[in-house]
Amino acid sequence: MKNRPRVLMIITLDTKEAEARFIRKCLEDSGLEVYHLDASIRRSVDGGADITPDQIAAAAGKTIEEVRALHHEAKCLDVMIQGAISCAHALHDRVGFSGIISAGGSLGTALGTAIMKTFPFGLPKVMISTMASGMTRPFVGTRDIVMMNSVCDVLGLNTISRRVFQNAALALSGMAHGYKPIAPSGKPLVVISTLSVTEKCCLAVREAVERRGFEVMIFHTSGNGGVTMDETVREQDVSVVVNLSLIEISDYLSQGLFSGGPDRCKASLEKGVPTIFAPGCIDIIVAGPEEDAKRRYPGRRYHVHNEVLTAVRSEAGEFKRVAEYMAGLIREARGPVAFFIPLHGFSEHDSERGHLHDLTLPPVFAEHLKKVMPAGIPVIEVPCHINDELFANRIIEQIIAFQTIGGQSPVSP
To answer: For the stretch 324-348, what's the b/e string if a residue is b when 16 or more beta carbons lie within 10 angstroms of its beta carbon?
Structure first.
């Protein structure tokens, strides 16, 4: 078959030779041209790999014998991951991959996904893994990796594993045959963080700026979405960032389940991308089941979202901590920043329709933020709820103003 899509297969032959041969045949039978990367550490197998353990070790500045002499699986793996990433990209530059597939246990999954994470969004990535039945976040991270549960250990062929491997190969084949690299839209890009309880505002902003010729990407701030948004800001040409939901900051400070970690919100500030902030969703802390929420945050008001998530009402001290933390981040900003505060509530929970409304608390946040915010950063109080039309309009106006400051006008009036 001419012009077959080319894919990278990452499987170690020292422990998975039979599985590698079977998966390779499935891929080739589905019309793919396969390039095999073998990062075996225990022993070298002459299995026809296109990228061998010796080449991988050399790319990391060592011989395979030196790697083995480390006698520490994590240290060996780190070296081989470093070399494998270099080799994989060098081969991709020559032949152009339309997909990547890997199979393994915990070490094989760490290897395969570490390589996958360095390839662009949109390139098909399938990981067959013993870890896929639950412990996926460390491996997937913020990338578009498909994790397929191996069911049985990736250790031999049987009626179940053959079916799983074949399905994974067919899945990659379908994606690879239709794959085309993502082309830039040519429109100025706005990225927005939100949660369902600020979605009304987000949708109003999105629709308005799309009509004005912007492209919009929205990220769900459940602990990973905002981190993914920050990674997108680092990797792509983003015109304006709108952090409408800061729950990943407030949960980080209060040990909530939706924590985005210590680097959340830093990307646009460090890169100098114009950034708009609003304190969306900081009125709640996300906890687990109701009994766990009451144990961890006693004496609060609670809203049971479902059997596994409970919204806990934030208090004035937590608002002040968020204000101080955000002021500290913004102090290092390399580009323009504006902070909008809706004085009638920060989420649908914190509204007349919600279960945790408290009109006394938004002014506490506003006053403290104004006190600690670096000079020259506008803090704009808006006399409405975050989901009101007025607030969305103020965000829209600021997006357009920032775009004009940046010297690039929207593509349509």
So the answer is: ebbbebbeebebbbbbbbbbbbbbb
